[in-house]
Amino acid sequence: MSEQQWVNEAWEKVMKKIERTSKSIGANFPHASENGKYVLEEPYWWTAGFWPGLLWQVYRDTKDESIKQLAEECEEKLDSVRNAFYKLDHDMGFMWTLTSVARFKLLGSEDSKRRALIAANLLMGRFNANGSFIRAWNPWTEGEDNSGIAIIDCMMNLSLLYWASEETGDPRYKSIARKHADTVVNEFVRDDGAVHHIVRFNPESGERVEAMGGQGYGPDSAWSRGNAWAIYGLTLNYHYTGEVKYLEAAKKVAHFFISHLPEDFVPDWDFLLPKGVDFPRDSSAGAIAACGLLLLAEKVSVPESPLYRRMGEKILQSLYENYTDWDSMEEGLILHGTSHFPEQKYIDNPLIYGDYFFVEGLARLKGYQELFW
Question: Any idea which residues carry the catalytic annotation?
Answer without folding.
Answer: 91, 153
